[in-house]
Amino acid sequence: MRRNVWIAIIVASVGWGTGGPGTRKAFGEGLDPYALVSLRSLVAAGAVMVYLLVRSGNLPSSPLVWRVGFVQGIANLAVPYILFTLAYQHASAGFVGLLAALIPITTAALAHYLLADEPLHAAKLIGMALAFGGVAVLALSGDSGLAEGGNPGLAILLGSIAVVVLSLGGIYAKHHAGNYDAIELTWVQFATGTSVIIVAMMIAEGFPRFGDITGYGWTLVVYLGLAASFMPFALFFWMLRHTSVGHASLVGYLVPIVSVTVGAVWLSEQLQPGIVVGGALILAGVLMADRAERRFVAPRP
Q1: How do residues 98-145 score in pLDDT, each as one tens digit?
Q2: Sign of the Cα pseudo-torsion (137, 141, 144, 146, in order)
Q3: Hey, CA dihedral for 23, 26, 27, 33, is it positive or negative?
């Protein structure tokens, strides 16, 4: 089971890690931020619905699934997707991906107070200090990873709020783990979260200008909806049923590595000194917290 969990972590990390570069690329293909998030979420919701109908012929009706899914639709989809997408306008995919690495650290800190079986040890505290020190370096350096322009301070603010909300969503889902089907919960999450995103889009941007979207832009929308949304979320909920919430959140450790690599190769994003040093501190802190997690939490069968 532990091997399967690690496979799920890697696959989910690649999906989420390529989501940032894909999003930044889509901005140049006629897609506005809210429209992109809405279309991406619609594709993912449709994919999950088709899977459920093929598998069982029914959509979820359990009150618990709808209750947990609604919370997840807000905390794991609508709020972080909007905030991270806006952050990509102000910093590189690698920069924002480093902020996503804070998810396991933040989750571990919050889970210590909200879950009885997620203790916070000294090594985790040191890891937190390193990770948040890395964020301070990112903020003070002024580097955004973009060749010109960028607003790293605003990107950090948007990304940090998204990380906290995501962490709370993960803890809430873990609290109810074992009482729901992961795919059913994923569909309810996308159905409810997408509805919220569409409302936000109509307020912020109005109806999408479909005529401005290129063919390549539509391809990116489909990729972001399937490979960078549906698949990672389904795997993440599966992991929450088979490992600790802190371990499942380790996808945040690999996401920035994928984002930085793909961003540099595909979008010619820059590895500026502040991003290198700050990113190293963040990843070192997350690694230290992971080692503490594996030391104090016994492997599950």
Answers
A1: 888 888 778 878 877 776 666 667 777 888 888 889 999 988 988 999
A2: negative
A3: negative
The rounded distance, in Å, linking the Cα atoms of 193 and 214 is: 26
Planar angle of CA 97, 244, 8, nearest 5 degrees: 55
Q: How confident is the model at residue 204 (pLDDT cuts 50, 70, 90)?
A: very high
Q: Please name the helix (run of DSSP H) or strand (run of DSSP E) that holds residue 27, with its range, or none.
A: helix 2-27
Beta carbons of 87 and 144 less than 8 angstroms apart: no
Output Rg (C-alpha) for the chain, integer angstroms.
18
Task: Give the span between the Cα atoms of 273 and 191, in whole angstroms.
Answer: 41
Question: What DSSP assignment string belongs to 217-281?
Answer: HHHHHHHHHIIIIIHHHHHHHHHHTTS-HHHHTTHHHHHHHHHHHHHHHHH-----HHHHHHHHH
Give kind and range of the element (H or E) at residue 24: helix 2-27
pLDDT at 84 over 90: yes
Q: Which residue has the tokens 């505290």?
A: 125
- State CA 212 to chain mean position distance: 27
Tokens 């618990």 identify what position? 64
Is 93:259 a contact under the CB 8 Å cutoff? yes
Amino acid of residue 125: L
CB atoms within 10 A of CB 186: 32
Residue-level pLDDT at 185: 82
Give yes or no for a contact between 237 and 185, defined as CB atoms under 8 angstroms apart.
Answer: yes
